[in-house]
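lol ok so funny story. i was supposed to be doing the assay writeup but got distracted and ended up predicting the structure for this chain instead. priorities right. anyway since i did it might as well share w the group, maybe its usefull for someone
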Amino acid sequence: MDNRARNIIIATVLATALLVPLWMWMRTPAEGVRYRAIVPTISATRGDASVAVDRSLMTVMQLQLKSFSAHYPEARVSITPEPSGRTVLRLLDREAGGAVVDGALIREEDSVVASLKRPVRREPIARNALVFIVNRANPVKSVTIGNLRDIFSGRLTEWRHLGGLSGQITACIDGSDFRSRAVLSSLLFGKSGKISATATKDIGQLVARVAEDERAAAIVTLPEYAAALRAGKGDRIKAMPVGRSEATTPVEASPATVYSGDYPLVSVVYYLYDPFDPTATGFGAWLGKEGQKLFERGDMAPYRQTVRTIILK
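and the output, tada:
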């Protein structure tokens, strides 16, 4: 073979080696597989995620999930209600990619999270309130933080000392809601584990106890109180305005007074999540931004001020 023929063969081989990959890259993919190679199967808005939720926050989170799913139908997030002592454990045991909890973690939970060799991120997403409810027939008009501290420590036992009728105060709490007890204890006493009260089986029994007993009083969350009113309990229970002291004006709990800080019994709701779970992370991003305006509709307050646009014609 002469040199000219050999050079032609070498040039043809080199051209083929360059042009074939270029043609494969530039050609139009078959219908149905056009983007399969470049679109990930799991992302912030695509894939599956499980989120554990404190039971008292479930109605609020159902509202959030409905809106999130409408915007991102390929992100299949499931939320499961948990007794508040189990919510964080579901995340730590990797049974869930995220957890929504009312109030800061207690010392033992913080210790476990700090000891993990994998990161757990924590974002504040909303503001909640604890509401002091009494029987509708109770003539007492308001209480102070000091009054509540005395009631839930067992030092104040008579309604007449608050301007009510003679009778013993029966302080009650939801025995299944560990988180609300911890928040109340922290707000009143600066630490957990100080509450002295009768524990009921669940929130339903707690509301029923107050509705049936003129001497009973209880602590519930703002969404739980709103749910009781929607269930027709408003003619048998009422929320008591709370003042910071005798010298201040008592304030009723509402999303507006919770956000402004005027109401004194306020907690922060946190979203804890695994940053290596893309869909759980995406749901958290929704809660911290677009979801802020929905918290008010769920009987809580947003953590950040929502932006409203006014169109002038």
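The domain at 129-266 is CATH 3.40.190.10 (D-Maltodextrin-Binding Protein; domain 2). The CA atoms of residues 37 and 62 lie 34 Å apart.
back to the writeup now i swear
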